[in-house]
Amino acid sequence: MKQLCEKDLNYGIIGNCRSGALVSDKGSIDWLCLPKFDSASVFGKILDDKNGGSFEIITETESRIIQTYDGNTNILITRFHCEDGVFEVHDFMPRYKLDNGQYYTPPDLIRFFKHVEGAPKFRIKFNPRLEYGRFDTKIQIYDKYVKAQTTKGNYDSMYLYTSMNNSDVACQQLITLYRDEFILVSYNQKLLKQTMERSYMKLMRTKAYWLTWSNRTTHYGKYNDIIDRSALVLKLLSYQKTGAVLAALTTSLPETIGEVRNWDYRFCWIRDASMVIKIMSDLDHHKLANRYLNFITHLLPEKDEKIQIMYGINGEKKLTEFELDHLEGYCGSKPVRIGNAAYKQKQNDIYGILMDVIYQHFHLFSVTLEHSEELWTITRNMVRSVQRNWHKPDKGIWEMRQNNKHFTFSKVLCWVAIDRAVKIASLLQQNKQVDEWLPLRDKIKADIMENAWSEEKQSFTQAYGHEDLDASVLLMETYGFMSPQDPKYVSTVLAIQKELEHKDLMYRYKNKDDFGEPSSAFTICSFWLIKSLYMIGRKEEAIEKFEKLLSYSNHLGLFSEDLDFETKRLLGNFPQAYSHLALIETAMILGGGQLSREEILLQMLH
């Protein structure tokens, strides 16, 4: 299967913080869910060539296709150089601010066809397959629009509006482009007439929004282009309505071709989202942090509310997992899963990662008394949870579905939870809690130092009583548990590199899990190793590895969850928030520090 499948994740992402789409390097929309990120797909070719559905542009003559983003925006330009002419397709989902201060984020996708030269000819293959393509989708052509609707099962529909002839678009007739045109697909029937002027206005306002947003991103001595693009990806994976942050746009893209490690990532993991928010705050995008913390406070209204590891983007707590047997899966990798059973798991690391974000918020911002009191209540509740749970085994950061263990990373993050709680209490002058929590912090650290260290490996290990190594242990320095100069940390970095690095990429771990031995590289772990090498003083090696790793992204600089060790092919859900936040964090450290406003102007001039 692996040799026969020639698919690659050569896609760009577009979106408007309500939903998102993947557009292939040939200009085909192969993934789109409407009206929101976690809705059923209307185009799902990425998961099934035959039954998934797509929205393609098929040129009449041989064409050379170039794809880029329109500067620092989330507008994707696919340029077709054909024998009979040249045209561009500007794909975007409208997003901009209205006069009343609200954001315009309709469940719409616009394809703006820009005529460049000649008389290029092409056909449109508009082939929606609503509700994950469970049943046939019927296409009906009307005067003002083309309507697609389900024929069985749950009722669903979508609408297409165009400046071209409706029948020509819907029936794959040959179209000659003489001037600019547009196609708009929407979950909703439009009340106003859709015109070229209206589509162009939406394009320009959306472009202005993204340029303004990107301009706020902190600049560094190096790597600003890749930081900017990764920040734009992370922004697209944030859900405007609630402040939730998705792990990825897709479901069931396999970690390894032909295997069953296929999961739905269109949900908000507390760990992933909190790490994203911390990085985005460092880049001066503080509104994301505020919305995310509001999401958290709304999730935990009761003092004894148990925090889950993940939630739906609207705060759903039950994410029942089931399989779509009618879909073949990406490169035949079944099953295709919807929902995620991991929501039931116990992972003790989430307390520390969330507490770290709350501490950053208190440290950086003056917050309202009401908001401070809410966050202080959550802080005390999480301390109680850590007190009850830190000494118990759990599923760990990698969500092992069978055996619980005393994972070192989980223990370290329990220490982080209490450490940040102590610092928050100090900021708020709650000295009684400081005195009460300090002994617990010291007790957890002593426990880790005694039980997680292996004399044989000269490294901290994956779990107490085990000799297996794990890349997550590299984060001991990141979270302030150890100094990068500590001999035990230096030894751990080198031991993990020796055991888990393979062909310039990193395993998460090499021991067997629920599905056997891992066989692909986990992208975030490669970034973690690079950062750790840099911090222990091996800077030239780190920079060389970083620039090599960047070359493994797709043509637009985007990363998925995994990479194939041999071919460096992108695997796993895409684009992956985890991978891009680690890219940003590593680039910030290797990039030579923040630039002043004067330095930024000089850089722009050169």
Automatic annotation (TrEMBL):
Name this polypeptide is given: Glucoamylase (Glucan-1,4-alpha-glucosidase), GH15 family
Pfam families tied to this protein: Glyco_hydro_15, TREH_N
Biological process per Gene Ontology, one example term: carbohydrate metabolic process
Matching PANTHER family: GLUCAN 1,4-ALPHA-GLUCOSIDASE (PTHR31616:SF0), TREHALASE (PTHR31616)
Domain GH15-like residues, every copy: 221-587
InterPro entries per UniProt: 6-hairpin_glycosidase_sf, 6hp_glycosidase-like_sf, GH15-like, Trehalase-like_N
Entry's transmembrane regions: none
Domain Trehalase-like N-terminal: 13-151
Gene Ontology molecular functions: hydrolase activity, hydrolyzing O-glycosyl compounds
Superkingdom of source: Bacteria
Signal sequence bounds: none
Protein source organism: Alkalitalea saponilacus
